[in-house]
Design brief:
- The chain has a single domain, classed as 3-Layer(aba) Sandwich (Protein Transport Mog1p, Chain A), CATH 3.40.1000.10.
- Helices cover 18% and strands 41% of the residues.
- The protein has 2 helices and 10 strands.
- A 7-stranded antiparallel beta sheet has the order 3-4-5-9-8-7-6, sandwiched between helices.
- Pfam families: Mog1.
- It comes from Pterulicium gracile.
- Keywords: Protein transport, Transport.
Amino acid sequence: MNSSATRPLFGGAITLTLPSNLIDAADIRQVPDTQEVFLYPDSGVSVIIEILQRVEPDDLTEAAKFHFDSLAHDNSAASATVKSIEQVPNERKDETPTATTLVGVQQIAKFNRSDEDTVEILLVLYRVQSKNIDLVLTFNVPGAAQDGEAVGEAGRNSALRDFTAAVKSLKIVDFGLFA
């Protein structure tokens, strides 16, 4: 069982709970200022937090689908299927918006290979209405991968638990981040 810790993101403007053994991708490669990226040390699971311009759909379900479809396009996915979408209210009663979670699956051919990987996408959208921002947190969980980075049922369940903890714990501490 991974131990978890509250991580400060974007200079402490956002906090959330993630496993403490995750690797900060910025230590390995260039990461845009609008992203925080973490890698699981023992699998191909990755976590990406992005600050994006608010997308057109006002409906949060449709906006979450838009971000999922945009990710599928960026991944050149052969197919993208949404399995579920739900609202997760902020129980802390602070200013952090309600979370809209989406679980989906994408078939992705990575690194110009002909065989496709099956990647479960765990996505959550926090719409910061007042700043015209969509904060999107994504867990990419490879279920079948050509490079051996796929996770089995136990790895998937662990990533799902980590995702649920992150969704419920994400807190926007400083809205000035989105100025």
